[in-house]
Protein backbone atom coordinates (compact mmCIF):
# COMPACT_ATOMS: atom_id res chain seq x y z
CA UNK A 1 0.00 0.00 0.00
CA UNK A 2 2.40 2.65 -1.26
CA UNK A 3 0.19 5.67 -0.56
CA UNK A 4 -0.15 4.81 3.14
CA UNK A 5 2.17 3.50 5.82
CA UNK A 6 1.05 1.47 8.81
CA UNK A 7 1.45 3.07 12.23
CA UNK A 8 -0.38 0.24 13.99
CA UNK A 9 -1.86 -3.08 12.93
CA UNK A 10 -5.17 -3.61 14.69
CA UNK A 11 -7.62 -6.49 14.57
CA UNK A 12 -7.62 -8.13 11.10
CA UNK A 13 -10.72 -6.99 9.25
CA UNK A 14 -11.43 -4.44 11.96
CA UNK A 15 -11.91 -0.67 11.71
CA UNK A 16 -9.16 1.64 10.56
CA UNK A 17 -8.17 5.26 11.13
CA UNK A 18 -6.56 7.35 8.40
CA UNK A 19 -4.12 10.06 9.54
CA UNK A 20 -3.15 12.84 7.12
CA UNK A 21 0.08 14.70 7.87
CA UNK A 22 3.69 15.04 6.73
CA UNK A 23 5.92 13.62 9.46
CA UNK A 24 9.55 13.46 8.22
CA UNK A 25 11.92 16.00 9.70
CA UNK A 26 9.50 17.49 12.23
CA UNK A 27 10.53 17.63 15.88
CA UNK A 28 7.03 18.19 17.27
CA UNK A 29 4.81 15.25 18.18
CA UNK A 30 3.13 13.43 15.32
CA UNK A 31 0.46 10.81 14.81
CA UNK A 32 2.85 7.96 15.78
CA UNK A 33 2.85 9.52 19.26
CA UNK A 34 -0.94 9.37 19.38
CA UNK A 35 -1.18 5.68 18.49
CA UNK A 36 -0.37 4.26 21.98
CA UNK A 37 -3.35 6.19 23.39
CA UNK A 38 -5.87 4.85 20.82
CA UNK A 39 -7.79 1.56 21.14
CA UNK A 40 -5.52 -1.31 20.18
CA UNK A 41 -7.99 -2.92 17.79
CA UNK A 42 -7.82 0.07 15.42
CA UNK A 43 -5.52 -0.13 12.43
CA UNK A 44 -3.89 3.29 11.98
CA UNK A 45 -2.58 4.31 8.57
CA UNK A 46 -0.64 7.48 7.77
CA UNK A 47 -0.24 9.23 4.44
CA UNK A 48 2.95 8.78 2.49
CA UNK A 49 4.16 11.79 0.51
CA UNK A 50 2.32 12.00 -2.81
CA UNK A 51 4.26 10.68 -5.78
CA UNK A 52 2.53 13.16 -8.06
CA UNK A 53 2.19 16.92 -7.71
CA UNK A 54 -1.08 17.00 -9.67
CA UNK A 55 -3.81 17.36 -7.04
CA UNK A 56 -6.35 14.99 -8.59
CA UNK A 57 -3.75 12.27 -9.14
CA UNK A 58 -2.49 12.46 -5.56
CA UNK A 59 -5.98 12.43 -4.06
CA UNK A 60 -7.02 9.49 -6.23
CA UNK A 61 -3.95 7.56 -5.11
CA UNK A 62 -4.64 8.20 -1.42
CA UNK A 63 -8.30 7.26 -1.82
CA UNK A 64 -7.43 4.04 -3.64
CA UNK A 65 -4.99 3.13 -0.89
CA UNK A 66 -7.61 3.80 1.78
CA UNK A 67 -10.09 1.59 -0.06
CA UNK A 68 -7.54 -1.22 -0.14
CA UNK A 69 -7.98 -1.83 3.59
CA UNK A 70 -9.93 -4.83 4.87
CA UNK A 71 -12.23 -3.06 7.30
CA UNK A 72 -14.42 0.00 7.67
CA UNK A 73 -12.76 3.41 7.87
CA UNK A 74 -13.90 4.62 11.29
CA UNK A 75 -12.24 8.04 11.23
CA UNK A 76 -10.09 10.35 9.16
CA UNK A 77 -7.73 12.67 11.03
CA UNK A 78 -6.09 15.72 9.48
CA UNK A 79 -3.39 17.81 11.13
CA UNK A 80 -2.49 21.34 10.06
CA UNK A 81 -2.35 21.59 6.24
CA UNK A 82 -3.56 17.99 5.98
CA UNK A 83 -7.03 19.05 7.10
CA UNK A 84 -8.28 19.68 3.55
CA UNK A 85 -7.16 16.26 2.37
CA UNK A 86 -8.69 14.58 5.43
CA UNK A 87 -12.02 16.33 4.86
CA UNK A 88 -12.00 15.35 1.18
CA UNK A 89 -11.22 11.72 2.01
CA UNK A 90 -13.97 11.57 4.65
CA UNK A 91 -16.47 13.01 2.17
CA UNK A 92 -15.49 10.62 -0.63
CA UNK A 93 -15.47 7.57 1.63
CA UNK A 94 -18.83 8.60 3.10
CA UNK A 95 -20.38 8.80 -0.37
CA UNK A 96 -19.98 5.04 -0.92
CA UNK A 97 -19.75 3.61 2.62
CA UNK A 98 -20.73 4.50 6.19
CA UNK A 99 -19.37 8.00 6.81
CA UNK A 100 -16.26 8.05 8.98
CA UNK A 101 -15.77 10.55 11.76
CA UNK A 102 -13.72 13.57 10.68
CA UNK A 103 -11.30 15.08 13.19
CA UNK A 104 -9.34 18.18 12.24
CA UNK A 105 -6.44 19.16 14.49
CA UNK A 106 -5.13 22.74 14.30
CA UNK A 107 -6.43 22.92 10.72
CA UNK A 108 -4.91 25.32 8.22
CA UNK A 109 -4.77 25.85 4.46
CA UNK A 110 -1.48 25.74 2.57
CA UNK A 111 -0.91 28.52 0.04
CA UNK A 112 1.88 29.97 -2.09
CA UNK A 113 3.08 32.18 0.76
CA UNK A 114 3.54 29.13 2.97
CA UNK A 115 5.53 27.25 0.33
CA UNK A 116 7.81 30.25 -0.15
CA UNK A 117 8.21 30.66 3.62
CA UNK A 118 9.11 26.99 4.05
CA UNK A 119 11.67 27.31 1.27
CA UNK A 120 13.11 30.38 2.96
CA UNK A 121 13.53 28.59 6.29
CA UNK A 122 15.08 25.49 4.78
CA UNK A 123 17.40 27.33 2.41
CA UNK A 124 18.53 29.95 4.93
CA UNK A 125 19.46 27.27 7.44
CA UNK A 126 21.76 25.57 4.97
CA UNK A 127 23.24 28.81 3.66
CA UNK A 128 23.85 30.16 7.16
CA UNK A 129 25.66 26.97 8.13
CA UNK A 130 27.80 27.30 5.00
CA UNK A 131 28.58 30.96 5.70
CA UNK A 132 26.62 32.20 2.70
CA UNK A 133 23.94 34.91 2.57
CA UNK A 134 20.26 33.99 2.54
CA UNK A 135 18.37 34.11 -0.74
CA UNK A 136 14.83 34.94 -1.75
CA UNK A 137 13.04 32.26 -3.79
CA UNK A 138 13.33 32.86 -7.52
CA UNK A 139 9.74 31.85 -8.21
CA UNK A 140 6.49 33.69 -8.79
CA UNK A 141 4.21 30.87 -9.94
CA UNK A 142 0.67 31.04 -8.62
CA UNK A 143 0.00 27.37 -9.45
CA UNK A 144 0.97 25.43 -6.33
CA UNK A 145 2.30 22.25 -8.00
CA UNK A 146 4.41 24.33 -10.40
CA UNK A 147 5.65 26.47 -7.52
CA UNK A 148 6.53 23.36 -5.51
CA UNK A 149 8.51 21.93 -8.44
CA UNK A 150 10.37 25.23 -8.96
CA UNK A 151 11.25 25.68 -5.30
CA UNK A 152 12.31 22.04 -5.00
CA UNK A 153 14.71 22.43 -7.92
CA UNK A 154 16.08 25.66 -6.46
CA UNK A 155 16.60 24.02 -3.07
CA UNK A 156 18.31 21.01 -4.65
CA UNK A 157 20.73 23.39 -6.35
CA UNK A 158 21.56 25.04 -3.02
CA UNK A 159 22.09 21.64 -1.40
CA UNK A 160 24.51 20.59 -4.14
CA UNK A 161 26.41 23.88 -3.84
CA UNK A 162 26.88 23.86 -0.07
CA UNK A 163 27.29 20.10 0.44
CA UNK A 164 31.09 20.16 -0.07
CA UNK A 165 31.43 23.14 2.29
CA UNK A 166 29.42 21.34 4.98
CA UNK A 167 31.17 18.02 4.26
CA UNK A 168 27.87 16.37 3.44
CA UNK A 169 28.19 13.29 1.23
CA UNK A 170 26.20 12.90 -1.97
CA UNK A 171 23.72 10.39 -0.55
CA UNK A 172 22.76 12.63 2.36
CA UNK A 173 22.55 15.64 0.07
CA UNK A 174 20.19 13.74 -2.22
CA UNK A 175 18.09 12.67 0.78
CA UNK A 176 17.79 16.28 1.97
CA UNK A 177 16.68 17.49 -1.45
CA UNK A 178 14.23 14.61 -1.96
CA UNK A 179 12.64 15.00 1.47
CA UNK A 180 12.11 18.72 0.94
CA UNK A 181 10.62 18.06 -2.50
CA UNK A 182 8.24 15.53 -0.91
CA UNK A 183 7.22 18.12 1.68
CA UNK A 184 6.51 20.86 -0.85
CA UNK A 185 4.61 18.44 -3.07
CA UNK A 186 2.48 17.45 -0.06
CA UNK A 187 1.77 21.11 0.76
CA UNK A 188 0.91 21.82 -2.88
CA UNK A 189 -1.60 18.97 -3.01
CA UNK A 190 -3.11 19.91 0.36
CA UNK A 191 -3.37 23.57 -0.63
CA UNK A 192 -4.95 22.66 -3.95
CA UNK A 193 -7.62 20.48 -2.34
CA UNK A 194 -10.95 22.25 -1.92
CA UNK A 195 -12.99 21.89 1.23
CA UNK A 196 -15.77 19.39 0.44
CA UNK A 197 -19.50 20.10 0.72
CA UNK A 198 -21.17 20.13 4.11
CA UNK A 199 -20.48 16.96 6.05
CA UNK A 200 -22.36 15.45 8.99
CA UNK A 201 -21.84 18.00 11.77
CA UNK A 202 -22.33 15.35 14.44
CA UNK A 203 -19.43 13.37 12.96
CA UNK A 204 -17.08 16.35 12.57
CA UNK A 205 -14.81 17.56 15.36
CA UNK A 206 -12.15 20.26 15.33
CA UNK A 207 -9.55 20.07 18.10
CA UNK A 208 -7.24 23.05 18.58
CA UNK A 209 -4.17 23.51 20.74
CA UNK A 210 -3.87 26.07 23.52
CA UNK A 211 -2.78 29.06 21.43
CA UNK A 212 -4.26 28.19 18.03
CA UNK A 213 -5.91 31.26 16.52
CA UNK A 214 -7.04 29.96 13.13
CA UNK A 215 -10.52 29.51 11.75
CA UNK A 216 -12.74 26.45 11.98
CA UNK A 217 -13.16 25.52 8.30
CA UNK A 218 -15.79 22.79 8.66
CA UNK A 219 -19.06 22.69 10.61
CA UNK A 220 -19.27 20.73 13.81
CA UNK A 221 -17.92 21.00 17.33
CA UNK A 222 -14.71 22.87 18.12
CA UNK A 223 -12.85 22.04 21.32
CA UNK A 224 -9.78 23.86 22.61
CA UNK A 225 -7.34 21.63 24.46
CA UNK A 226 -4.98 23.02 27.09
CA UNK A 227 -1.97 21.55 25.30
CA UNK A 228 0.90 23.25 23.51
CA UNK A 229 1.11 22.61 19.78
CA UNK A 230 4.48 20.85 20.04
CA UNK A 231 2.92 18.16 22.25
CA UNK A 232 -0.57 18.23 20.75
CA UNK A 233 -0.59 14.91 18.90
CA UNK A 234 1.07 13.07 21.80
CA UNK A 235 -1.45 14.20 24.42
CA UNK A 236 -3.62 11.50 25.96
CA UNK A 237 -6.60 13.86 26.28
CA UNK A 238 -6.46 14.64 22.56
CA UNK A 239 -6.37 10.92 21.78
CA UNK A 240 -9.35 10.34 24.08
CA UNK A 241 -11.30 13.04 22.21
CA UNK A 242 -10.44 11.35 18.93
CA UNK A 243 -11.53 7.99 20.32
CA UNK A 244 -14.82 9.45 21.54
CA UNK A 245 -15.51 10.90 18.09
CA UNK A 246 -15.38 7.38 16.69
CA UNK A 247 -17.97 6.32 19.22
CA UNK A 248 -15.69 4.06 21.21
From TrEMBL:
Protein name, UniProt field: Thioesterase domain-containing protein
Organism: Paractinoplanes toevensis
Amino acid sequence: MTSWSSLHEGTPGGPSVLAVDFEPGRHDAGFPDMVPHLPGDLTVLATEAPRRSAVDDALTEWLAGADAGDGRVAAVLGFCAGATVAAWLAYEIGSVAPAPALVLLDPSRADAALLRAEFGKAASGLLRAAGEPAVEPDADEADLPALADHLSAEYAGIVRRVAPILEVDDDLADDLAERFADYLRYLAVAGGTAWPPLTDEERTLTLVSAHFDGDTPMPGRRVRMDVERADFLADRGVALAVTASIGR
